[in-house]
Amino acid sequence: MILLVIIYVLLIRHKGMEGVIYGIIAGMFVLLLAAFSYRWSMALSGMVDSEQINTSMTTVIFFTLTPWSLGWTFGLVVILNIRTQQTLWDTARRDPLTGLYNRLWMMETFSTRLGGNQNGTKRSFCVAIIDINGFKLINDTRGHIFGDEVLKKAADILNNHLGPTDSAIRYGGDEFILLIDCAGNRECRETLRERLVHVLETPTTIGEFDLHFSVSIGNAMFPEDGETVDELLKVADDRMYMHKRIKCRNTEISNKEALHG
Asked: Are 73 and 181 members of one domain?
């Protein structure tokens, strides 16, 4: 029984192991069928009397093979149902293009974090909004398929540079949101935008094309900048657009200096 429970736990935790239990169930039912066939063939042939059969084979069939077969079958049904529920839950909270969490997951996570903070000590965290500058131009010049690859590349970069307690969300279009655990870490709060800009604007490649991201980033801290979802997102969004205007202004100045230099 302990072995049975261990196997089921492994099957629930590791995908692709259902084939093992399918084989076990099939083997159990084959043994059950063989036992029934043997029981009645012995009785019909007269090799043993019915009383001997009832005391031996019936015990094996009805008290060993049948319960085990039904138990494994029931367990498989339970496992498949749990897997289906997990898949549906995860699919509903994932962006199908990038594989990042989506807005539904973000709102649920915000609700959990803010609810927990209302019941005890307020634990700081940072919300960062990231916008890819000039993404419309990428779509217009290279096509939407290439634009999708750009979004997936940005998602991969973010995932590869997040901490174990941080999360990346595709908010919509070319905007991403990060939930960063900055509790008690002043340096994290002060250098977050610079670190993200450095990571995302490092030149990379997509296929045969060289790619140099330009991003605008705004962040907000809980509870310093707001204590609700709307307040935090508004502060982060305003700072993101401020960063975008500064970058555009610097680009214009650089272009003028290049023309008149």
From this structure: no
Whether pTM > 0.85 for this model: the answer is no
- Tell me the C-alpha distance between 12 and 80, whole Å: 9
CA distance 120 to 108: 19
117 and 239 together in one domain: yes
Pairs from 53-62 (Cβ < 8 Å, separation ≥ 24) = 60/35, 61/32, 61/35, 61/36
Residue entry with tokens 């960062």: 128
- Tokens 């979802």 sit on residue: 229
Whole-number Cα distances in Å, 69 to 21, 33, 39, 65, 251: 11, 11, 18, 6, 72
Give the Cα separation of 158 and 244 in Å (integer).
19
Report the alpha-carbon angle 233-246-216, nearest 5: 45
**Statement to judge: residues 111 and 200 lie in one domain:** yes
Angle, in degrees to the nearest 10, between helices 50-60 and 18-45: 180
List, in sequence order, every residue forming a beta bridge with 222; answer none if it has no partner.
125
Amino acid at 47: M
In this predicted model, what pLDDT tens digit does every residue of 189-238 receive, in sequence order? 667 788 888 888 888 888 888 888 889 999 898 888 888 999 999 999 99
**Are 243 and 218 a contacting pair, CB within 8 Å?**
yes
Is 174 one of the catalytic residues?
A: yes
- 131, 174, 181, 237: the active-site residue: 174
Residue 176, Ramachandran bin (φ over 0: left; ψ between -120 and 50: alpha; else beta):
beta
Instruction: Identify whether 97 is part of a domain.
Output: no
Structure tokens belonging to residue 249: 């202004």
CB 135 within 8 A of CB 147: yes
C-beta separation of 146 from 136 below 8 A: no
